[in-house]
Amino acid sequence: MTDRHDFRKESFPRWLELADRHLQAANLLADSSPQHAAFWYHQAAERFLKAFLIKHEIAFSKRVTNLRVLIELCQAKRELHGVAAKFAELDLMSTWETAFQYPPEPGEQEAAVPNSSMLLAARASCAMLRDLASGVARSRALTDAQEKTLSLHSQGQIGASEAKADIGCNDPELISLLAQRDLALPHVDQTVAEKMATEALALMNIPVVGRDHKQVIVLRKDLNMRKGKMIAQGAHASLKAVIDQGRLQLVDGKSCLVIPLENNCIGPWLQGNFAKIALGVNSEGELLALHAQALAAGHLCALVRDAGLTEFGGVPTYTAVAIGPAPKQELDSLTGHLKLL
Questions:
Q1: Could you tell me what percent of the chain has a pLDDT over 90?
Q2: Backbone phi, then psi, for 326, in 5-degree steps?
Q3: Distances (CA, A) of 80 to 56, 72, 77, 140, 172
Q4: Separation between Cα atoms, residue 208 and residue 329, nearest integer Å
Q5: Residue 247 class from Cβ within 10 Å (0-12 exposed, 13-18 middle, 19+ buried)?
Q6: Which of 26, 37, 87, 163 satisfies CB 3.0 to 4.6 Å to 30 for a cystine?
Q7: Alpha-carbon separation of residue 81 from 9, 85, 191 (angstroms)
Q8: Banded model confidence at residue 128, pLDDT cuts 50, 70, 90
Q9: Which range scores top for mean pLDDT: 5-9, 78-82, 289-293?
Q10: Alpha-carbon distance 177 to 302, whole Å?
Q11: What pLDDT, on a 0 to 100 scale, did the predictor assign at position 224?
């Protein structure tokens, strides 16, 4: 019985999508848990290589996870002769599959946690492997109109069929073009990526803190504020929602702002990803109604009223509201209908 598998060529896009999900999980973990980011970079690289093999109908064993072995299989394609030399990190990355899942054996040295330079090199290798699999050159240039199409597709405003027609590419190429520009993949949503990141942390029973909390900042689009003004108003709202929970207190003879972290969502949020998203509404009425709903639901929130000294003709104007931090599912039920800015 052979251990080699001939996967159907039609499964190639699914393998490429799975690899991109693993890569997103790795990128999410790079700062907070480098050893688990390393695990998912290996998983992404393995699946990018296997996607290439499937695309070119080269049989391989599902049990093979060593990246060097896989890329040598890829070199069966004549035009890829010598390509393995470009990936100096593959031997190190191959050790990451199991290095941090199990405690070292007696007398065995514990694996070193990858530093930021190693993870950056792994991320770059994964990007090159993605391009190797999809057949898209990283140097491919798009027109301004095509770049706009790609951005709108990333935001979910243009479907994949329309985007592929405008840009002149297929499914794998579209995935690669999005990823090269660090744009979101519409079919790989943040919830899926974060779930995979959480699963990675669970490999060593590391507690997941604050990953399910976020703050939502809502700004009025109808005011046509300058970008700098919008940023300032959103920052006012975000800070106010948290600072309003504090109190001035003397500590060692010094006046300090003390914000209790117990019995609210601020502590988990600050210890987690510190996530924030910016959404838009089209009128003052929408903004005030959202603020009232957030208060009624018991959320921390802050409404900002600008004095009108630099814009709005000197008229004090409500510009923004921050809601949370709070559990994501609770905020989604309140603001999930709003679009990202």
A1: 18
A2: -160, 165
A3: 12, 9, 6, 19, 19
A4: 16
A5: exposed
A6: 37
A7: 22, 10, 39
A8: confident
A9: 289-293
A10: 39
A11: 93
| pLDDT score of 176 | 59
Domains of the chain: 4-202 (no CATH), 213-340 (3.40.1490.10)
pLDDT tens for each residue of 238-284: 999 988 888 888 777 788 888 877 656 887 777 666 789 999 999 99
The predicted model gives 64-71 an average pLDDT of 86
What is the greatest pairwise CA distance in the chain? 81
- Determine the 3-state secondary structure of 21 from DSSP: helix
Q: Using alpha carbons, list the distances in angstroms from residue 153 to 8, 101, 227, 278.
A: 28, 37, 23, 19
CA dihedral 263, 267, 272, 273 (to 10 degrees): 110
- Return d(Cα 155, Cα 184) in angstroms, integer: 7
Chain centroid to CA 112 = 25
Which residue shows structure tokens 């003879």? 253
Angle (CA) 181 15 189, round 5°: 50
8 A C-beta contact, residue 150 and residue 142: yes
Q: Alpha-carbon distance 171 to 39, whole Å?
A: 27
Whether residue 325 contacts residue 214, with contact meaning beta carbons closer than 8 Å, is answered with yes
Task: Find where tokens 């798009």 sit.
Answer: 142
CA neighbor of 67 nearest in space, from 50, 43, 98, 46: 46
120 Cβ contact partners less than 8 Å away, ≥ 6 residues apart? none
Distance CA 318, CA 308 (A): 10
Q: Alpha-carbon distance 93 to 26, whole Å?
A: 13
Q: Where are the beta strands (DSSP E) in 221-275?
A: 247-251, 254-258
Mean pLDDT taken over the chain: 79
If one counts every other C-beta atom within 10 angstroms of the C-beta of residue 139, the result is 7
- Distance, in Å, from the CA atom of 79 to the CA atom of 278, rounded to the nearest integer, reads 46
CA dist list (Å): 36 to 5, 42, 97, 319: 29, 10, 9, 41
- Structural Rg of the chain based on CA atoms: 24
Residue type, 130: R
Residue 128 CA: distances (Å) to CA of 2, 178, 179, 247: 31, 14, 11, 51
